[in-house]
Amino acid sequence: MFQEASATAHDVKQAVTGAKYYLICDYLDMTPISTTTTDIDEILIIRKAKRISSNIRKKYSTYAGRQESREKYIEYLVNHPYSSDVFIRFIGHIISQMQNEDLIEESVLDLGYF
Fold this sequence. Notes:
Blueprint: H1 2-15, E1 22-25, E2 42-45, H2 54-57, H3 63-79, H4 84-97, H5 108-111
Parallel strand pairs: 1-2
């Protein structure tokens, strides 16, 4: 999925000059690699945890398996809650891109735009 996200980031940045591309993940699902060779600006991991291993996740494919593993999954979620500082970091990225330019009504005709 990282390759697909990287390709999408490239396409977006080709189409929209100055676009920023942030990949927001629930958990770490791969070995961390440098994003400098991609068009992804930053990868944000909101649970600050690795993904549950596939040998455990395969139990979730059936109703009985989900019921059997329910308590362990709840424990995982409780031990790895969403990280507010990662959300705050992302919001900071958004705010840094916004400019609050006051409309000066008196100069609109002089400028020719607003």
